[in-house]
Amino acid sequence: MALSTAEKNRLPDSAFAFPKERKEPLVDADHVRNAIARFDQVDGVTDEERDEAWRRIRRAAKKFGVHVSERDWRELFEDGKRR
Asked: What is the pTM of this model?
């Protein structure tokens, strides 16, 4: 289910994979899957911020029963490009 702008605005920063940017909300299984699919589309973040975001995504995936086979976000990429 898509979140409206108003719904996103009401979410705490902690509900996002990238809280500083308020990108990729992690509020249900569909949003967790979407955050993984769009992980490479978040610009202007450091590898350390991606590491933190990946930990948040994996935690949310466990909470919502989403299987994630990759242990590290770098496994999503091959030669710098999304697999």
From this structure: 0.90
